TrEMBL record:
It holds the Pfam family p450. It comes from Exophiala sideris. It comes from the Eukaryota. This is Cytochrome P450 monooxygenase. The keyword Cell inner membrane does not apply. The chain crosses the membrane at residues 9-33. PROSITE patterns: CYTOCHROME_P450 (PS00086).
């Protein structure tokens, strides 16, 4: 009896193995020879399985892989059986643009984004089109040009604290080394916490809350690792301990709890204060945000509105340090434009042509979000760059690959702000492909805020200081990507060119 049972079990196992093998072989044949995307160029192995892509994501070098693939295969690359990357400008409109009539918008790829950190899809970032439009109307007033000009004293206060903090370090030791990337983060986190909740972290004064910075990057790294697991839901629970350390999960939980607590404390103070939540709380009825929406958006603001801005500032600073002639030209423009610090206003900085060109070039070479934000082709199918994509296809414009492609930019690997100032050498550049804040109805709500904040920080910094990069940061841009760049310290020496300036009391 035991022998008979053993034989039957062996037969059953063999049949399961055969069926599994037939299924796998059939899937390979379909993906390679019958799939609607079979004619798109790309690595043959990638048409069979997404494992090559998953490996690159896990290793943090997906942006380099994408760049090489597009160099080899062209403007369109099939990266996985059901995933396509683009580097041409028309793809922005086709994928991310607003569609009408019988052409619905492309929804965000849930397997990439996952649920809100507060649970569900309540927040602006992941909401469906109807909920997104309602929430965006509420928040757009807080990010309007008029509202941002009214917040100029807030920008000024924290920029003064930044300048004073650096000035005191230099005064105590002229040879001191400064991690400017960390100080940029102190500033952007303090600004965003104050604008959002009327409750700064006071990082520029007291570094005891520095854990919040580390928690935010852990949050982003957790998102990157979770994306990989969502590709394989059947075995995600088994793989989760291998992919995601408990320390990262704990840091994310602490970050979420603190953001939610800030929202709750702000709600207790009422709607009288002139910050983002003051406007949110004035909405009533069908327009009002739910508490879950507020919690989700509070977490989003303290991630999307902080780390990415500091990243862009750090990247541009490094590029300027690696190109001393460009740094000298920018410093000269800033210092000749303003006789006193009081003249360095949001409006005045926005008129500096070379400063604006430097930011565009910095965002091109070092986009804070290097990979493409994926969307999914709706059930009606859709045409992207002249090719019909079947429903469910994940597609996107890959920022880093697009911006570093010689198909789009002459001297693509070089830092040349002049390309944005009508230099005839770069007349053929495909500048419309540069969309670092995304495109369409779901583009970054805080775009204007980011530009004003970056100009205010860098403009004041270069008005007051000269910078020199230290040897240990010469290769600073060799970084991994986990949603955003995994940045090492950016170590510089700082020379105070206005040592007689009074500092704001720390």
């Amino acid at each position: 009896m035991d022998a008979f049972l053993t034989a039957r079990l062996a037969l059953a196992a063999a049949l399961v193995g055969v069926f599994w093998l037939v299924h796998v072989v059939g899937l390979i044949i379909y993906n390679v020879f019958l799939h609607p995307l079979r004619d798109l160029p790309g690595p043959r192995l990638a048409s069979v399985t997404r494992i090559p892509m998953v490996i690159r994501k896990y290793q943090g070098d997906m942006q380099q892989w994408l760049m090489k693939l597009h160099e080899q295969y062209g403007e369109v690359v099939r990266l996985a059986p059901n995933e396509v990357s683009y580097i041409n400008a028309p793809a922005w409109k086709d994928i991310y643009g607003f569609h009408t009539g019988n052409k619905p918008n492309f929804p965000k790829d849930a397997s990439f984004y996952g649920p809100d950190a507060s649970g569900g899809n309540a927040g602006l970032f992941r909401a469906d089109d109807t909920s997104h439009a309602r929430q965006r109307r509420i928040l757009s007033h807080a990010f309007s040009e008029r509202a941002l000009l009214q917040q100029e004293p807030t920008f000024r206060r924290y920029v003064n604290l930044l300048i004073t903090g650096i000035r005191q370090l230099v005064a105590s030791d002229p040879n001191t080394k400064v991690d400017i990337e960390r100080w940029y983060n102190y500033t952007t986190f303090d600004v965003m916490a104050d604008l959002s909740f009327g409750e700064p972290l006071n990082l520029l004064v007291d570094h005891s809350q520095e854990w919040f910075l580390k928690a935010v990057f852990s949050f982003l790294k957790l998102q990157s690792m979770s994306q990989i697991l969502r590709y394989y839901p059947g075995i995600a629970r088994l793989l989760r301990p291998l992919f995601i350390p408990k320390s990262i999960i704990a840091k994310q939980a602490r970050n979420n709890q603190e953001c939610i607590a800030k929202v709750n404390r702000r709600l207790e103070r009422g709607s009288g204060e002139a910050d983002i939540w003051g406007l949110v709380m004035k909405q009533e009825g069908d327009k009002a945000m739910s508490l879950r929406e507020m919690h989700a958006n509070g977490i989003t603001f303290m991630v999307a509105g902080t780390e990415t801005t500091a990243t862009a500032l750090s990247g541009l600073t490094y590029l300027l340090l690696q190109n001393p002639d460009k740094m000298e030209k920018l410093a000269k423009e800033i210092r000749s434009a303003f006789k006193t610090e009081d003249e360095i206003t949001i409006s005045a900085l926005a008129r500096l042509e070379y400063l604006n060109a430097c930011f565009e070039e910095g965002l091109r070479l070092y986009p804070p979000v290097p990979l493409g934000p994926p969307r999914v082709v709706p059930q009606t199918s859709a045409v992207v760059c002249g090719k019909v994509l079947p429903p469910g296809t994940s597609c996107y414009v890959s920022n880093y690959a697009a911006y570093h492609s010689e198909r789009n930019f002459t001297d693509a690997s070089k830092f040349v702000p002049e390309r944005w100032l009508n230099d005839s050498r770069y007349a053929d550049d495909n500048k419309s492909v540069l969309q670092p804040f995304s495109f369409g109805p779901r583009n970054c709500l805080g775009k204007n805020l980011a530009y004003h904040e970056m100009r205010m920080i860098l403009g004041n910094f270069l008005w007051n200081f000269d910078l020199q990069i230290c040897e240990e940061s010469q290769n600073w841009m060799k970084q991994k990507v986990y949603v955003v760049w995994e940045k090492p310290p950016l170590i510089v020496r700082v020379k105070d060119v206005r040592p007689d300036r009074p500092g704001q009391q720390l």
